[in-house]
Specification:
The protein has about 180 residues and is mostly helical. Helices cover about 50% and strands about 5% of the residues. β2 and β3 form a beta hairpin. α2 runs parallel beside α7 and α7 runs antiparallel to α8. The protein is elongated.
Length: about 180
């Protein structure tokens, strides 16, 4: 009566793991870009697996260069903190210098701006089209680059907790 008859039943399901992007497509990605803003945006997606929407809504106060941290605000969830490497911090510094030189009086609170949003007093974020256009020029969709980065890290560690810490994934996404 208290015996579990389904205990010995095992079900297997096959999930296809996304294939990694060829390394020759990723190599030299940043070398194709001249603009510091574009280089930083591609690096944040390729290294830290940020979403294009996260790029658009980053604020200037989210970057703490002295501590090497970037805070991602997430609606309805705790903020996620990313610890930046020296290379990415250098790209962020180059972008901030260029932004200040181009638009010294800009009051837009967003980290990434264009020539239109920098001078807009209402402080809008950059549009999704700006980010999409950048990745079209590079030849790799941002979503594909992000997935490739997460899958690469999962192959190395296979630890869902590590994936949650690194990329701010949910428990379900990290386990999958």
């Amino acid at each position: 009566m208290f015996r579990d008859l389904a205990r010995s039943v095992s079900l297997t399901s096959s999930r296809s793991v996304p294939t990694a992007l060829p390394s020759d497509r990723i190599a030299g990605l940043l070398d194709r870009l001249d603009d510091p803003r574009d280089r930083l945006m591609v690096a944040l997606v390729a290294i830290y697996a940020l979403l294009p929407g996260q790029l658009a809504h980053l604020r200037r106060t989210d970057l703490d260069r002295s501590k090497g941290r970037l805070r991602l605000r997430r609606a309805g969830r705790m903020d996620h903190v990313i610890y930046l490497d020296v290379f990415t911090l250098g790209l962020a510094t180059a972008w901030e210098l260029q932004r200040h030189q181009r638009w010294p009086d800009s009051s837009n609170p967003h980290f990434f701006v264009t020539r239109n949003t920098a001078v807009d007093d209402s402080g809008p974020p950059i549009s999704a089209g700006v980010v999409q256009l950048l990745f079209q020029r590079v030849g790799l969709p941002a979503g594909r680059l992000r997935v490739d980065r997460i899958v690469d890290e999962a192959r190395l560690s296979a630890d869902p907790v590590r994936l949650m810490d690194l990329f701010g994934l949910s428990n379900l996404s990290a386990t999958r």
